[in-house]
């Protein structure tokens, strides 16, 4: 009941005000767009509109510069990252020439960190193939001396990059930090990427690589780690294994997983500009569309957006223990939380680990204490499930 002296506006009146403010399109019931893949309008509620009954959602322009508020509850190193980092310009992969230029710029921008990761975390890195799929085998520092309680076991790594960028070598900072104290081999899979190779090419490659690992390792000696798009691909792989009749690995770690390729999920809107790494219209929509070959209807396929899958044991089988790590500033926060709740409701073993003030795939920042803590947590999680 409304407090004495206040009248609750009728649904019709509220809808009329929301339309007038530009918050919802005329004729849309309740203003819920259902999280479609691409925004049909970029208009949010104008903050200066008279009698506007809502606070405007942030627009993509909010991601152009760093977010002003920096929490004092995170490390000084993490604060420095937030002060200096913003999403900035959008991703343009509209032509083959622009795809090539974008990839070259990405690799060039990561030359120093790629070399540093190799020098500090890995004893060796050898390119090869795994089930016919290009891959790189990384042995962590100390591996030759037999160091680590999981020595000789293997961590299969699926890299991020929105299914259009990156490689195992340019992205495996997180995997290296997790593997080093455990003595795990890292098998980084360079799956095919879009737009040249649309879904299901990446997933087919992940299945082929995993099948090849099973030829040399029992499933209890294999774990998965994926970050961002690689996290979504790792989850899709777990779902696909039941169809393939293949055993599940011992455990999986999903770091900031991209499990919903439409804009559905509260924080894909509300954390616009707050997450300094990702913003849907600027960085994700073009990649999502490229991944499905331009067919938006495929974005809701449960193996493309695995958050939409049926995780019940009857449908998905018994999945391995899954650790989901995500920052509280991460665009994918709400979808990571939804994934955790859905897994638990379905009776699957899952752990949810949110991190104060952290951004998308913060685990890859070598000099940030929270990244070291998170990768140590992931290593302990794997040790608990692989040392049996």
UniProtKB/TrEMBL annotation:
Residues 1-29 form the signal peptide. This is Alpha/beta hydrolase fold-3 domain-containing protein. Residues 155-363 form the Alpha/beta hydrolase fold-3 domain. One of its GO terms (molecular function) is triacylglycerol lipase activity. Keywords: Hydrolase, Signal. The keyword Ribonucleoprotein does not apply. It comes from Raphidocelis subcapitata. Transmembrane segments: none annotated. The lineage of its organism: Eukaryota, Viridiplantae, Chlorophyta, core chlorophytes, Chlorophyceae.
């Amino acid at each position: 009941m409304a407090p004495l002296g206040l009248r609750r506006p009728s649904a019709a009146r509220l809808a009329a005000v929301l339309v007038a403010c530009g918050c919802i399109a005329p004729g849309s019931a309740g203003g819920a767009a259902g999280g479609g893949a691409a925004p049909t309008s970029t208009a949010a509620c104008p903050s200066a509109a008279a009698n506007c009954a809502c606070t405007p959602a942030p627009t993509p322009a909010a991601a152009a510069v760093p977010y002003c508020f920096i929490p004092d509850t995170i490390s000084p190193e993490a604060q420095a990252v937030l002060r200096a980092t913003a999403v900035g310009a959008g991703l343009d992969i509209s032509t083959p020439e622009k795809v090539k230029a974008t990839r070259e710029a990405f690799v060039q921008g990561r030359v120093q960190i790629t070399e540093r990761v190799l020098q500090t975390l890995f004893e060796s890195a050898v390119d090869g193939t795994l089930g016919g799929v290009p891959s790189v085998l990384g042995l962590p520092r100390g591996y030759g001396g037999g160091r680590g309680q999981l020595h000789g076991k293997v961590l299969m790594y699926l890299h991020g990059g929105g299914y259009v960028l990156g490689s195992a070598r340019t992205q495996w900072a997180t995997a290296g930090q997790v593997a080093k104290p455990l003595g795990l081999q890292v098998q980084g899979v360079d799956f095919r990427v879009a737009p040249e190779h649309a879904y299901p090419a990446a997933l087919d490659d992940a299945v082929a690589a995993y099948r090849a690992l099973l030829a040399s390792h029992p499933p209890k000696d294999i774990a998965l780690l994926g970050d961002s798009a690689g996290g979504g691909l790792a989850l899709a792989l777990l779902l696909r294994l039941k169809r393939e009749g293949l055993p599940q690995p011992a455990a999986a770690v999903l770091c900031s997983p991209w499990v919903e390729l439409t804009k559905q999920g509260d924080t894909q809107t509300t954390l616009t500009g707050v997450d300094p790494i990702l913003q849907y219209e600027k960085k994700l929509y073009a990649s999502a569309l490229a991944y499905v070959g331009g067919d938006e209807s495929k974005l809701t396929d449960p193996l493309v957006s695995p958050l939409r899958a049926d995780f019940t044991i009857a449908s998905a089988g018994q999945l391995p223990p899954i650790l989901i790590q995500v920052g509280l500033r991460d665009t994918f926060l709400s979808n990571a939380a939804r994934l955790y709740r859905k897994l638990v409701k379905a009776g699957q073993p899952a752990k949810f680990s949110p991190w104060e003030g952290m951004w998308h795939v913060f685990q890859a920042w070598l000099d940030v204490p929270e990244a070291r803590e998170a990768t140590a947590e992931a290593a302990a999680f794997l040790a608990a499930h692989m040392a049996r």
